[in-house]
Structure formats: C-alpha cells, structure tokens
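input
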Amino acid sequence: DLNNNGVQDTDEEGLEGITVEIYNTGADGIAETADDELVGSDVTDANGDYFVDGLLPGDYYGKIMDINGDYPLSSGPTSLDPNDDTDGDDNGLQPDGAGAGVWSNVITLSPMDEPTGAAESGSGGDQDDADDANGNMTLDFGFAPLMSIGSNVFVDNNDNGIRDAGEPGIEGVAIEVYNTGADGIAENADDELVGSDVTDANGDYFVDGLAPGDYYVKAMPTEEYPQSSTDIASTADADGDVDNDDNGLQPDGKGAAVWSNVVTLLGGDEPVGGAESGSGGAQDDAADANGNMTVDFGFLPELSIGSTVFADNNNNGIQDAEDDGIEGVTVEVYNTGADGIAENADDELVGTAVTDADGFYLVEGLAPGDYYVKVMPDADFPLSSDDIATT
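output
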C-alpha cells in the first residue's frame, strides 16, 4: 500500500511469499485469546493471493506473522470490519507496531450468504467460484514501506536561497518532523510530532520510520544564524524535490521557528541518485525511493555595519590624529530596495544608532545584502568633508 490509504490501488502489486494463517475464535468468540485454534494456512502467490478452504461455518480471523522486511507496516485501514464484505481494503490490525504481527477482526462465515461475483472483484476474488456463496474473498491485508525525510541546514552567506559552494552546514540545529493531522494543514492543533534529529557537523539531519503520508519539517534557529533565507530565489515548495534550495518559512520573524510546506511521502516514488546530490543526500540509500533527502533550510549570519563620524578639521577626507569623533550624531542604515539604488522610494530603514563619545556607531542584525548609511549632520559640523581624498 504505497500511499498508505488502506485501499489496493491499480498501481499497487500483491506481495508474494507471505504466510497467512486462519484461526477460529474458540469458545469465547474473541480473536487472539488462548483457546483459538489454527485451522488452515496458505502462502501468497505472485499476485499476493491466498486461499484457505475446508472450513465449517463459524467465526474466524486471519493472521500474518511472516512480515515482509520491505513493507513492515500495516497500512491505514479504511475499514476494520471484515464482515462488511468490502473487497480491496485493508483489514489488518498491528497493535505492536511496524514489523510486528498483523491480524484481522473476526469474520463470520455463513452458508450460502457470502459475497459473490462483483462483490469479490479484487485480486483473488475468483478463487471460490466453484462454490461462490460459501466463500469470502474480501479478507485483505495492506502493507506499507517505512519512509524517511532529511537533508541539510546551511549558511546562506549571500542570501540567494541556494547552498552554493563554500557555504557550510550548521551543526546543532534541532529538527522536528510532524504529520499534518486529519486536516492536512501544517502548523495546526491536530499535528503530531513523529520524529526529531539534531544536525551533524555537516548540517545533515535524518528522520526515518515514517508511514507514507503528509509531513512538514521544523527547524529551530541558532543564536548565530537566527534568520531564514529571504531571497526570492528560495522556494518553500518542499515537495518540489529540488535539492540544495531553501525550503524554510519564518512568518514570526528572525529568531522564530522555521518550517517547510507539506511534503507528501509516497512509497517507491521519492527522489533518487542525482536528484539528491547535495549534502545528506545519501542518508536514505538503503531504501532510496522511499526517502526524500531534499528538504533543506538556509539560514543567514548576523551582519553589521559601522565605524566613525569625525571632525575633519583640515577637510582632507581622512581622520587624522588630531581629528576627534563627534558624539550624538544620528546614523541610519537603509537597504537599497528591489532596484538596488540608494535614496529611492523602495528603500527601507533597517537600523539606527547614535554615535558615542568617540564618534563610533554600530548597527547589527543585518541580513546579507546591499545597504547605505545616512548621517544627520551635527549643528557644529554641518558640512561633509569635500576633499578629493574622500571616497
């Protein structure tokens, strides 16, 4: 059951070589108790079909203890009632988790009252055709592969939303993976934490043991790198299967948690080989098509700009030894906006400072990018230096 929807879809093949056991429910009529009796078994054929006959009317259940290692998880059932005579849906219970035994709820076999013809249209449905009304061919079991998600958290030094050569991974970032809950929407109250990791020295993370389904990844910024990449080249489409690009959303601003949009994990359909060429891409190689190693997060370093406002007494454009700093001057730092040109309407004030007793100013917390500095002249020093040495 590659998409874990509890139904055998047209592209989902049967599992060969699985031993299916049939038990009666004993005197108490309850499955999986001490008085149950094994009354028959079969091994699935190339189509995944099994068949056990020679049974008396009564109450039974099917059991599978021989779990396929590639498909260890009983799929999400649409119905746990094998008496509803629905074909092609999963009827399996797996209370002890992936890899453990699976059994059905109780199915009651009644003479001349079992489903016939189109009601048994799924694979193996014609195995009882010699005595159709006395056989129930709708007791199906779906199994899903275990999936994984992962890749890299990196320093996006130029804030272009891409991990370029020379941009290192970030070690020690806490990563959490959530399912989207019943509503299928990320960051809602019904979401469930299903796995976590901390990035290694390369910035790589990896979370496995997931059922096919919808997930998102959450990353906690570090103090050194508090802001998610902001460049328009970045994409929040984590399910686009593009490696080495930033997939982070940070709606609550710098320092707040970052998360991806929803990633749908589908058995046998995840990126492989060269599609996962970035750092951490080989972490799922044991089951490559069942892992998505393209969910990356770019973070920005904290940058700063500053220096000195000084009294250029000889107007040579250089702070000579006798030129003191000017205290109390307001300094503003602007980005250049979308057009990259200073002093245009789309510029944005991103920080301010007031010079200290030495004329020093400092504006911190800036993302990589283009800025200019604006100074409000002091009343005692109203003119900017105009010597040709000025640059």
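quick obs: The CA atoms of residues 74 and 141 lie 8 Å apart.
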